[in-house]
Amino acid sequence: MSSVFTKIISGELPGRFIYRDDTVVAFLSIEPVAYGHTLIVPVKEIDKWTDIDPELWAQMNEVAQQVGRAVIEAFGSERAGYLLAGFEVPHAHIHVFPANDMSGYNLATAMRPDETDPAAMDEAAERLRELLDVDADGRPNP
């Protein structure tokens, strides 16, 4: 059975993409610790980050760094938080989010989908896409 991330990647479920290539995607979390909270996910469904091939892992982290720099600039945070958890969805992913303290590292405090403002989520995605110079689907602009 496909993971929820595979369904987002394939378009079966909606997602606010801010980066996409043939092997890695990045889209906003529907349960953010802060607006701009992004998940970096391999296209290939791999459950544990420890099972990811080193080349793909390096690419995921390169994307995480790019997203992290954009998150800092877009939201004026001191840092970009980076978190690996892996219990929420059985599809490896990196959490990157605006961070001014350690509060974002507690995913139990994340907003639920019905607590987020859809307009604020759309604005966060657009700000990040603009900084990453990608189109509405996360693909690099020509």
UniProtKB/TrEMBL annotation:
Signal peptide: none annotated. Gene3D superfamilies: HIT-like. Residues 4-107 form the HIT domain. Keywords: Hydrolase. InterPro entries: Histidine_triad_HIT, HIT-like, HIT-like_sf. The keyword Hydrolase applies. A motif (Histidine triad motif) lies at residues 91-95. It comes from the Bacteria. The keyword Hydrolase applies. One of its GO terms (molecular function) is hydrolase activity. PANTHER family: ADENOSINE 5'-MONOPHOSPHORAMIDASE HNT1, HIT FAMILY PROTEIN 1. This is Diadenosine tetraphosphate (Ap4A) HIT family hydrolase. It comes from Corynebacterium guangdongense.
